[in-house]
From TrEMBL:
Alphabetical keyword list: Iron
Keyword Kinase: no
Superkingdom: Bacteria
Entry keyword Repeat: no
Parts forming coiled coils: none
Species in which this protein is naturally found: Mesosutterella porci
Residue ranges of every copy of the Ferrous iron transporter FeoA-like domain listed in the record: 1-74
Name this polypeptide is given: Ferrous iron transport protein A
Length: 75
């Protein structure tokens, strides 16, 4: 399942990042969204972009195309 498939209020765990997008991957890692991290989808903008998640106590906004590379497990 991908991060952009989750709805507001749903929680999950980051499993991995798809290859082919090293810049997005590095950006997410620097913000604390690392494999094994638990998160919660806090907000989604009206048009679906960006998506705001709470990860490691911080609020992180990611674009829809960035969220599409994040493999997650819904909890």
């Amino acid at each position: 399942m991908k991060l952009n498939d989750l709805k507001v209020g749903e929680k999950g765990k980051i499993l991995a990042f798809n290859s082919g997008a090293p810049d997005y991957r590095r950006h997410l890692l620097m913000m604390g969204a690392t494999p094994g991290s638990n998160f919660e989808v806090v907000r989604v903008a009206p048009m679906g972009d960006p998506i705001e998640i709470r990860v490691r106590g911080s609020m992180v906004s990611v674009r829809k195309h960035e969220a599409a590379i994040v493999e997650v497990e819904k909890q």
